[in-house]
Structure formats: structure tokens, C-alpha cells
């Protein structure tokens, strides 16, 4: 009798353990976070690009910080935790690399664009070319502040090269970054402005009047790199390869970017190393 009770007790315990085992849920890995610091001029394009990356990498959550390229670079220099740096001027990456603040082998050129003269669509200026600025009076021209934005630095080079600076400098309205310049022109607070083509193409409030000569300014190349503060190097490498893929290169062209050939991307690519 005691033996029967003992067996029943053992069987009950086994049944309980089996029941508990069925209720145990597998532990799921927590998604990793990839922090991206990107230039303001990339915002519209990245709104289309980033969801594609997330769809292909469901184990990675993206955190994006937008701002002027120079400001983002300074934050990285001061130790801001950033896995991917996407400035609107490749030289910003070069400056970090010169200080040993870029992880070896992660620096790439992933796109390029041009500098353009724009006017508003609501109250357009009576100009049809850069040459018109020599003869047609302009009272307000929006340009980026060279102290805070890469587009301001490039615009200053163009205006000096074109010998327009002495004539127009007193009419400058400075924008902290490219989007501020766009807003000034779109709202009619400035008659014309100087921005990247990538800024102007997706904005219905402005239209492109003319393109600055290539020789008039530093080539506008968009770069990507993993800074020294990167905490997710593996995911950063995946993202860099993703940007250079044919699908994304084609998509970027819809936003006014010029693609880069595989040879350009590969020539600057090495294995991602911590």
C-alpha cells in the first residue's frame, strides 16, 4: 500500500515537472541598438533607406541623431557614443581619422552630389542662371553658416570662385544648416539660396535654378565610417555594406545623389576591425 502511494507520488511529481517544462518560454535575445549620427541633408533619403535595413536586420534597432555635420563631428570628438557617422562632407571623416578617431577600415564614400542655386516656388526670384546674379539685384540670399555647416563652407568657396562674394555678402542670411537655408527660401524670407542638390530635390517649396561649376568648390562626397566610440562594430559593418548595395545606390539617386561605382567603395574598404 505504501509502495502504491509512493509510486503515485513520484508519478504526480513527474507529471508536474512535465507540465512546467511545457510552460517554459524560450529566452529571446534582445535587439541590438545601432546609433547613427547623420547630416540634416540626409534626413529625407534616410526615411526611405532605414526601414529597408530594419526589415533585413530585425535583430537591430536604429537610433538616429540628425544635425549639422560639424556639430556631430565635435560631439564624436568629445566621446558621444555613435556607431555610424554620416556627414554631408567627406572631409569631416578625414578630420576624425587624422586624430585617430575612426575605426580602421570602415571609411567609405557612398554617394556624391552637387551644389545648386535655388529659389522659392511661391515667390521666385527673376533669375535663371548663376550669371544673372551679376546683373539682377538680389536683396536676400540664404547660405549656410560656414562655422556650423558643411554646406556653408562649400557655398563660401563657390561664391568666392564666382566673384559674387563682394557683391552679395551684405545680403547674406545665414542658416545654421542646410534645412534652415531651405526654409528661408521656401518661406520667401530669402530670394535665393545655395544648397546641395540632395536638399532641393525632395523639397516642393523650392526649385533649382542652376548648378555650381564642379571646379568652384570642394567635391561634395558623402562618407560613412564607424567612429572610435562605436559600441556595435558588427552591425556597423553590416550597415556600411548595405549602403553600398546596388539597391540602395539606385534608391539614393531618386533624392538627387550621384551613386558611386563599386570600385570606389571597394577601394576604400578593408575588413572592419575594432
Account of the protein in words:
With 274 residues, the protein is α/β, with parallel strands linked by helices. Helix content is 39%, strand content 20%. Helix 2 links the parallel strand 1 and strand 2 (60-67). The longest helix is centred in the N-terminal third of the chain and has 22 residues, at 2-23. The N and C termini lie far apart (69 Å). It folds into 2 domains: 32-112 and 220-267, D-Maltodextrin-Binding Protein, domain 2 (3-Layer(aba) Sandwich); 115-211, D-Maltodextrin-Binding Protein, domain 2 (3-Layer(aba) Sandwich). Residues 1-18 and 263-274 have low confidence and may be disordered. Strands 7-6-8-5-9 form a 5-stranded mixed β-sheet. The protein has a 3-stranded parallel β-sheet with strand order 2-1-3. Strands 4-10 form a two-stranded antiparallel sheet. It has helices spanning 2-23, 43-56, 69-77, 90-98, 150-161, 165-168, 178-186, 197-200, 233-243, 246-253, 262-267, and strands spanning 32-39, 60-67, 84-86, 108-113, 115-120, 141-144, 172-175, 192-196, 206-211, 220-224. The chain contains 11 helices and 10 strands.
Amino acid at each position: 500500500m505504501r509502495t502504491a502511494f509512493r509510486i503515485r507520488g513520484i508519478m504526480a511529481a513527474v507529471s508536474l515537472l512535465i507540465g512546467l517544462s511545457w510552460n517554459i518560454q524560450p529566452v529571446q535575445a534582445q535587439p541590438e541598438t545601432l546609433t547613427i549620427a547623420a547630416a540634416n541633408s540626409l534626413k529625407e533619403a534616410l526615411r526611405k533607406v532605414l526601414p529597408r535595413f530594419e526589415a533585413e536586420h530585425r535583430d537591430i534597432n536604429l537610433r538616429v541623431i540628425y544635425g549639422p555635420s560639424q556639430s556631430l563631428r565635435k560631439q564624436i570628438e568629445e566621446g558621444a557614443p555613435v556607431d555610424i557617422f554620416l556627414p554631408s562632407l567627406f572631409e569631416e571623416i578625414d578630420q576624425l581619422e587624422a586624430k585617430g578617431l575612426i575605426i580602421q577600415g570602415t571609411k567609405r564614400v557612398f554617394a556624391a552630389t552637387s551644389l545648386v542655386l535655388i529659389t522659392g516656388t511661391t515667390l521666385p526670384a527673376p533669375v535663371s542662371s548663376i550669371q544673372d546674379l551679376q546683373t539682377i539685384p538680389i536683396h536676400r540670399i540664404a547660405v549656410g553658416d560656414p562655422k556650423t555647416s558643411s554646406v556653408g563652407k562649400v557655398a563660401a568657396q563657390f561664391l568666392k570662385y564666382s566673384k559674387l562674394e563682394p557683391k552679395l555678402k551684405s545680403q547674406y542670411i545665414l542658416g545654421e544648416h542646410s534645412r534652415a537655408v531651405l526654409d528661408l527660401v521656401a518661406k520667401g524670407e530669402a530670394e535665393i539660396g545655395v544648397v546641395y542638390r540632395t536638399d532641393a530635390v525632395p523639397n516642393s517649396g523650392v526649385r533649382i535654378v542652376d548648378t555650381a561649376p564642379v571646379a568652384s568648390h570642394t567635391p561634395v562626397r558623402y562618407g560613412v565610417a564607424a567612429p572610435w566610440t562605436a559600441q556595435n562594430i558588427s552591425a556597423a559593418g553590416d550597415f556600411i555594406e548595405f549602403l553600398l548595395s546596388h539597391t540602395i545606390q539606385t534608391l539614393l539617386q531618386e533624392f538627387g545623389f550621384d551613386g558611386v561605382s563599386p570600385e570606389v567603395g571597394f577601394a576604400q574598404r578593408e575588413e572592419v576591425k575594432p
